[in-house]
Amino acid sequence: MMTVLDAPAIWLRDNCSCAECKHPDNGQKLFNIGDLADGIRVDETHEQDGEVHVRFAPDGHASVFDSAWLRRWLPEASEAPTDPRAEDAKQIWDVSDLGPLPEASWESYQRDPAVKAAALEAVVRTGFVVLRGVETTPRRVLDVAATFGFVRTTNYGDLFDVRIEPNPINLAFTGLPITPHTDNPYRDPVPTLQILHCLSNAAPGGDSGFVDGFKAAEVLRTESPDAFDILSGTEVTFRFVSEDTELSATRSMIDVDPYGRVREVRFNNRSLQPVRLRPEDTERFYVAYRAFAEVINRPEHQVVFRMQPGDCVIFDNIRLLHARTGFEGEAGERHLQGCYADLDGLESTLAVLRRAR
Amino acid sequence: MMTVLDAPAIWLRDNCSCAECKHPDNGQKLFNIGDLADGIRVDETHEQDGEVHVRFAPDGHASVFDSAWLRRWLPEASEAPTDPRAEDAKQIWDVSDLGPLPEASWESYQRDPAVKAAALEAVVRTGFVVLRGVETTPRRVLDVAATFGFVRTTNYGDLFDVRIEPNPINLAFTGLPITPHTDNPYRDPVPTLQILHCLSNAAPGGDSGFVDGFKAAEVLRTESPDAFDILSGTEVTFRFVSEDTELSATRSMIDVDPYGRVREVRFNNRSLQPVRLRPEDTERFYVAYRAFAEVINRPEHQVVFRMQPGDCVIFDNIRLLHARTGFEGEAGERHLQGCYADLDGLESTLAVLRRAR
């Protein structure tokens, strides 16, 4: 256990919470890091009644730290700070260890904050949740999004309809099978959440699938470390063009943080543009890209389920890949409505729910 | 100049645009990378009437490439692909080379697509534009955002008022000076654009300032490469808490792409949480952080201007830092309205405008 004396003086001084240093109402810092004197050091310290009193030199500033706060926040022993978005904070899964689909009834989700918290927690930890029994009313998906965050409006509108269309601007709007992919990698920032609400699903086929992209990346890193390094170290361009829209984003398929932890996955063969790398890099890139695709498409990685009318899935679009089998539109209607939202709003709602418990 | 024969066969095969490989209407790819045979090679090729015909082995697939398309897309000689978001695609500036503020009259922006394109181009290249003469009607800022993209709704609502408030949840809502910072680094994804519309500015003080964060990062990299490496290689946590909201994001202050190019900057001393690094890393981090702050706060980096009623600035919130001097609310009203939006929508609008020219 570290003690206050092990903490660097500049760290302690920067975290002073007196009314001069932090706004008493909103907790925002009132000085700039450059305002502190050079060579800050601890001049004197003593503990009293669960508080640590520190006097600094050369500025003579006096700070009082709550001991419990210090225990929580003192510099830690690991190199990489905790990040709830990074792979090591997630419950990575394949079909064998996923267990039953994380789900909740919409009725109890709305009524019981504990059910709601567990559902949102599933999105954060497992990557998705299925809400059951959401009224099959058009545009209801927007109400679901409003329970935890804010809709991200895009060129598709506030919501989009997934059904067979006569002149589809996207293969999603056909009956063709769609292999595992993340949505909108041509957008930057990419929408971090997608919500899909099933209004009808009477067509033969059209089953849904999810793959944990973080699991696939983990398997790739184990089996083909070179392929992992190439995909995390190479940027490619994704693009979407329609009459009124021209979106393009240049990012890596596997996004790692400075500590090498997987943080985001982008995978969408439909919108990937011709890669523009040196010829030798192109060859290596394709070997890696094919290896990742092979891992993603292994049956043990894809959980397959059938959305029933009233089902609504909320899923992490920078981690999970989603898929659907092909379907015959003429034999019955299949109609989903979807919208995008962002993880930060969901995480905030979850944190506030946890406060109350 | 590369020729088609220099391009890797797998690259050519993957970019076939026949109706079997790409949806004729929407251009989306119809096969998966794993569907291609192993060991793809070019079996035969000939050029005719500005088109290159290629037959592949072992699949026997025949492709026809437009020569102009090939010249545009053939693998290139540089390691790093072009990315319009990365520092090398920007016009990096300090006060001495910024020149006059990029600006446009709101009237001509709405009437003349060339004026609008130039204004949006300034946001992409320089990081901001000032629109002059926007009606000082409440909520008009949302109409400005709608001309190029989609508002990002947050816990602050679709828009927020910047003026003195009795119980401010954020220092922005006081008369205190605010040093250069990016907004909402506690959000992930962070809003990439901010729009601020001045309704009144009669208070003494309250001048506005911008710093090009990419320039500051460039200077830091030149003067203190270690500091640059530490800030781009260390994640810190930003946080915002209010009664109904609890947002937290763990990211680096300088975000570089896999090629080391600066792509995003986050800088906000008010919401930075206690860093939780090993004690020795903490000391090094603070040296780097203070060095970056010192560079950012140099007068030669900050352009200062006064917003007049009717001025509306659109700026890149993952590149520019904004600031304001303190003001005396009792001597006159200062009232801005702001909202967030995203660069991808703006870039799309600009790309579509360019098509028409």
- Strand adjacency order, main sheet of chain A: 4-5-15-8-17-6
Average pLDDT across residues of chain A? 93
Largest interface: A-B, 99 and 99 residues
Strand content of chain A: 25-35%
Order of helices and strands of chain A: HEEEHHEHHEHEEEEHHEEEEHEEEEH
CATH architecture tag of the largest domain in chain A: 4-Layer Sandwich
Global morphology of chain A: globular
Main pleated sheet of chain A = 6 strands, mixed
- Estimated radius of gyration of chain A: 25 Å
Number of continuous helical runs of chain A:
10
CATH-level-4 superfamily name of the largest domain in chain A: Clavaminate synthase-like
Structural class of chain A: alpha+beta
Structural domain tally of chain A: 2
The number of E-state strands of chain A comes to 17
Q: Alpha-carbon distance between the termini of chain A?
A: 29 Å
Q: What's the CATH C level of the largest domain in chain A?
A: Alpha Beta
CATH topology type of the largest domain in chain A: Double-stranded beta-helix
Write the layout of secondary structure elements.
The structure is a homodimer of 357-residue chains.
Chain A: H1 9-14, E1 41-48, E2 51-57, E3 62-66, H2 67-73, H3 95-98, E4 103-105, H4 106-111, H5 113-125, E5 128-132, H6 140-146, E6 160-162, E7 178-181, E8 193-201, E9 208-212, H7 213-223, H8 225-233, E10 235-242, E11 245-252, E12 254-256, E13 262-265, H9 279-296, E14 302-305, E15 312-316, E16 320-324, E17 334-341, H10 343-356
